[in-house]
Amino acid sequence: MFLSDADAADVVAFRHELHQRPELSGEERETAQAVRTFLERTRPDRVIDDLGGHGLAAVYDGAAPGPCVMFRAELDALPIDEVSSSPYRSKARGQAHLCGHDGHAATLAALGLGFARQRPQRGRVVLLFQPAEEIGAGAEAVILDPMFSTIQPDFVFAWHNMPGMPQGEASIANGSAACASRGLRAIFNGKTAHASAPEAGLSPMRALARLMPEIAALGRGGPIDEGYSLVTITHVEMGAHSFGVAPGRGELWATLRSVTDATMASLVERAEALIRDAASADGLDVEIVYQDAFDSAVNAPEAVERVVRALKAEGVKWKSGLPMRPSEDFGRFSAEAPSALFLLGAGESCPSLHNADYDFPDALIPIASGVLMRIARDALG
Hints:
30% of the residues lie in helices and 30% in strands. It has helices spanning 5-20, 29-40, 101-117, 138-144, 205-216, 261-281, 301-313, 364-380, and strands spanning 46-51, 55-61, 64-74, 122-130, 155-163, 170-172, 175-189, 193-194, 229-238, 245-246, 249-258, 285-294, 297-299, 318-320, 324-327, 339-347. The protein starts with a helix and ends with a helix.
């Protein structure tokens, strides 16, 4: 392990500090500042602030020319109340780190401590702390930021903790690593009427009732393979809370999910056709809006090979795994450079991600940071 016991304790304390002060997607200003303050002791050669919003990148240069290896972690938390008696539980009502982004960020902070003692022999390392991962907007914002062109990574790596897997065991595979997904809102507009004369209006009731089973049937889940797709109805509303008004407006929300971006394109096309047919049948206007759009995260074989070598060298038990059903904004980096996302088990009895009682296991920090440091040393000396 490249960290001393004192440094390891500092990193865990830093994770607890982040956990207590969570910020939602796009609001991570104080979190980014806390990361910057911690990294100042590591004397990075350059720090890029406000990258794609509140993102932050710390650059550590080697002595000789060489490739650029970038490691990515996330800054944002979730809009969920934490259920915990922990002394470091969230101090922000309705906001909490219930996905482990505080632990991922602490892992990169540990790398910074390692590079403070010994820079890479060649090339450079970039520690990227990305904003707005939970809504699928942060990676694209970072990449489109003009300052990102000064980084130009040759490889990009990230990891995610995964409850349900044995703690400390890894999973990685070539190709798809995390599903594509997007949130679809179908907004129907007709005409209200008195509840005693509903025929005088245009209600979205029949369109919504027809669409819920039809859209859900487009993606039934099942085994995760290249053709996998899943549609989950997450919200439906119609009209005002009134017994005297026949509704004239309604919304249907659904999450579309697939292993590949090509399957997602087909899923979107078919869902939109169903929505427009249902609206037309009842003379309704309809607007289709997409939110929280995530590309499929695709692992490059050459990047996977580097992760596998590091796992073996660190003595981490691993297996070739299927893509994870949750989405990850890391997928956007796949188009920029050979990339790899791997999973580390958070424990078979660990509460699920996004659960109110989830808490990132601190024991993963030395394991994950050891693997990432091994990747960096392997690539850069």
